[in-house]
């Protein structure tokens, strides 16, 4: 306890804590988008529980990984060389997670575009029993939680040597995710065009994970700047559509549609 208090007597520790919390929240956006789209495919009465379980698993996984920091750091050590690049376990996990994300996002985009497609959707069991669908959703959330958790913890290790700061930052970031999950999911559900934009984000994130696994570093600032710009354009489109609906409703008495 005394060592814990000594850490926070250093002003740089507070700076590291705030910076790490912000970084962890930003890194959690990717996971949150996936969870929001995925759980919206479940029956309404299951969505909230699935989000809480999914985000709770993310917290447990990240805190558990913090207890194995020495092992996590070793994941960055090369295990074999191919195509002139030294691949580590972290690289392989990123590539596998990226491929999973690209596959799922592509599948859902196809399912959304082709309304006659009767194949399984993002959850993977559209017509199966609710319990099976719920289990499928939780399983897929768990897979992505693992990928994003390892990336998150390695980022934390690179920013501060103090484990207590990492614990506080992870708990704070996951708490923000828990508070934002339902509002984000509801917003996506009420605005169908946002779904396609969010799936495009997942494609981009998946592609980024793959190229980073092959040793090509993509600055996160570029990714989130592109996402913010795209979201801004879509917000303008939504405002424009709603304004046109209000004008038509006022002129012809037609009730405005919801977008």
Question: How would you describe what is shown here?
Answer:
- There is one protein chain.
- The chain is mainly alpha-helical and 259 residues long.
- 78% of the residues lie in helices and 3% in strands.
- The chain has 2 domains: 2-217; 219-259, no CATH class.
- It is built from 9 helices and 2 strands; from the N terminus they run H-H-H-H-E-E-H-H-H-H-H.
- Strands 1-2 form a two-stranded antiparallel ribbon.
- Strand 1 (78-82) and strand 2 (85-88) form a beta hairpin.
- The longest helix has 33 residues, at 220-252.
Task: Reconstruct the topology from this structure.
Elements: H1 2-7, H2 11-39, H3 44-66, H4 69-74, E1 78-82, E2 85-88, H5 89-113, H6 130-159, H7 163-190, H8 192-213, H9 220-252
Antiparallel strand pairs: 1-2
């Amino acid at each position: 306890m005394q060592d814990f208090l000594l850490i926070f007597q250093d002003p740089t520790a507070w700076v590291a804590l705030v910076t790490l919390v912000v970084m962890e929240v930003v890194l959690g956006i990717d996971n949150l988008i996936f969870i929001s789209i995925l759980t919206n495919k479940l029956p309404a009465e299951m969505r909230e529980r699935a989000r809480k379980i999914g985000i709770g698993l993310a917290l447990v996984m990240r805190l558990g990984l913090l207890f194995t920091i020495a092992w996590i750091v070793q994941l960055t050590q090369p295990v074999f060389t191919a195509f002139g690049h030294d691949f580590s376990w972290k690289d392989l996990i990123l590539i596998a997670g990226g491929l999973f994300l690209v596959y799922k996002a592509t599948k859902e985009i196809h399912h959304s575009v082709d309304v006659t497609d009767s194949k399984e959707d993002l959850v993977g069991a559209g017509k199966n029993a609710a319990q099976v669908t719920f289990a499928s959703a939780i399983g897929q959330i768990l897979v992505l939680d693992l990928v994003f958790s390892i990336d998150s913890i390695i980022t934390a290790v690179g920013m501060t040597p103090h484990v207590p700061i990492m614990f506080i930052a992870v708990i704070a970031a996951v708490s923000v995710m828990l508070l934002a999950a339902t509002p984000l999911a509801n917003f996506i559900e009420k605005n169908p065009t946002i779904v396609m934009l969010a799936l495009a984000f997942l494609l981009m994130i998946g592609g980024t994970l793959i190229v980073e696994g092959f040793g090509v570093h993509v600055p996160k600032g570029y990714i989130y700047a592109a996402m913010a710009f795209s979201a801004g354009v879509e917000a303008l489109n939504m405002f424009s559509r709603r304004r046109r609906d209000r004008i038509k409703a006022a002129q012809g008495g037609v009730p405005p549609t919801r977008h």
